[in-house]
Amino acid sequence: MLQPEIKPMPLKLYNAIIEDFNKINMFNRKAENELRKKYKELPSPTIGSIISLLVQRSMKQSYRKSPVISSKYYELYEELMRDKNKADVILKLAESQGISPALLVRSLLQNIYSDTKAKKYIKDTTLIENKDLSYQTFLGIMNDNQYGHYADVIKQSIGLEYELRLERKLRLMNITFSDENNLRSRGYDKTPDFKLDVPIAVDGFIVNWIESKAMFGDEENHSGYVKDQLTCYWNRFGPGLVIYWFGYLETLDSTPEVNNMFILRTHFPPNDSITQYKAELL
Fold first, then answer.
1. 212-247 confidence digits (pLDDT tens)
2. Distance CA 266, CA 255 (A)
């Protein structure tokens, strides 16, 4: 079964979460758990997705790739490693520098190895010959589920899970469609997750395609999707439906494109709100 509807989030609540996030100078599981406890009334995927967005943006704003910075981090790392109590050096260093553990790991490895090798070792820490560095790298990656390779794999898996859930729902309702692979084989470069063979109406709004987003939608990421994806879908296929499974900011409902180019939902609409058209009537 698909998850129940999540109501759009009030701007006041979203701003409160951002304010609390900005007070925390850590980007590991411990910091995430603190926010989850405070906002325990929110579904776990919703608060997790919001934290993920905020961490990604914070790292893009505060971190700059530089040999000087990587060298500095490595010097601090070696200094801490000389301490007898070196069980969680990466986590301590990441916290003191105000960056995510996975990003710190990447910077450390880039100071020692080429970018190609650094990426390879992040994916498989057992390949690092230095056993202490291998362990610390593993510890940093596994304590960061919002940034880096490990976090990306989790997000991709969740995204695929919700696409499959939606696909099963469409099939159960006998709604035929073409998926991304079908559309790309026909020469489309930018494609929605599902292009409906015959449009449906959701609460009277015509839907030609459906885009599944296993995340929280706020103004910044939504405007990016409108520019890079959703406008293209509308130009090619007409109006559609965007599902933010983990909720979205209530202010998005008042943007010009909503109810014109597409509608927003936090779940797949119930049967009684959907009208299926027969092909011969179109």
1. 999 999 999 999 999 999 999 999 999 999 999 999
2. 17
Q: What is the pTM of this model?
A: 0.88
Is the model's pLDDT at 150 over the cut of 90? no
What is the distance, to the nearest Å, from the Cα of residue 91 to the centroid of all Cα atoms in its chain? 23
Longest pairwise C-alpha distance within the chain: 77
- Count of residues in the chain: 282
pLDDT at residue 2, rounded to an integer: 45
Residue 94, both tokens:
């990441």
CA distances from 31 to 10, 71, 85, 101, 105 (A): 23, 27, 22, 12, 18
What is the spatial distance between Cα 115 and Cα 113, in angstroms, rounded to a whole number?
A: 6
